[in-house]
Hints:
The complex is a heterodimer.
Chain A: E1 4-7, E2 10-13, E3 19-25, E4 31-38, E5 42-49, E6 56-57, E7 65-67, E8 73-78, E9 87-94, E10 105-106, E11 110-114
Parallel strand pairs in A: 2-11
Antiparallel strand pairs in A: 1-3, 3-8, 4-5, 4-9, 5-6, 7-8, 9-10, 9-11
Chain B: E1 4-5, E2 10-14, E3 19-25, E4 32-38, E5 45-51, E6 56-59, E7 62-67, E8 72-77, E9 86-93, E10 103-104, E11 108-113
Parallel strand pairs in B: 2-11
Antiparallel strand pairs in B: 1-3, 3-8, 4-5, 4-9, 6-7, 7-8, 9-10, 9-11
Amino acid sequence: NAGVTQTPKFRVLKTGQSMTLLCAQDMNHEYMYWYRQDPGMGLRLIHYSVGEGTTAKGEVPDGYNVSRLKKQNFLLGLESAAPSQTSVYFCASSLGLAGLYNEQFFGPGTRLTVL
Amino acid sequence: DQQVKQNSPSLSVQEGRISILNCDYTNSMFDYFLWYKKYPAEGPTFLISISSIKDKNEDGRFTVFLNKSAKHLSLHIVPSQPGDSAVYFCAASGLKTSYDKVIFGPGTSLSVIP
């Protein structure tokens, strides 16, 4: 039981390049989330999904797209990376909706640097 | 404007003593609060939570206190151990707020000195 896994762990991009971050969970959770963590700002929600085939915007969605084609996977895409997207990205999943008293399980994070 | 604040970026405590981590919130509609713990190079893990109908919740060495009138909560760790050295995030949510979101504070880095 691996829990929540993320690939890659580290990535360096040049401004304007694109990439996809992959999140996978083996807990059969309906809900999945993408956060970014920046110094002094805590975790901010980018996008989330309430089930296979669904996505919704979070607090800071601009510049990102997501897809949830399979229940166990949640992809985060950057179409044209910008230095402001340099951050640590965390994926999370939960059995019920996080805002409704449900614990979230987090992946180990992806450290992205955009030059 | 941050709705969940942790005004101490870092805290150092001697092993065996009490660690007290503080958290303040501005939205009076929050009714559920959580603490997550994060080690370097790992994702946050759930530690303890409290509902607004309670003012205290205890789990082993960890106790969370909630003061609704002051919009303040605190996490007490007694006794502190070196393995408790980590970043602690306070988070808030609730049915009466944006129920699809959990709002995280910026975190407090705790160092427990042997």
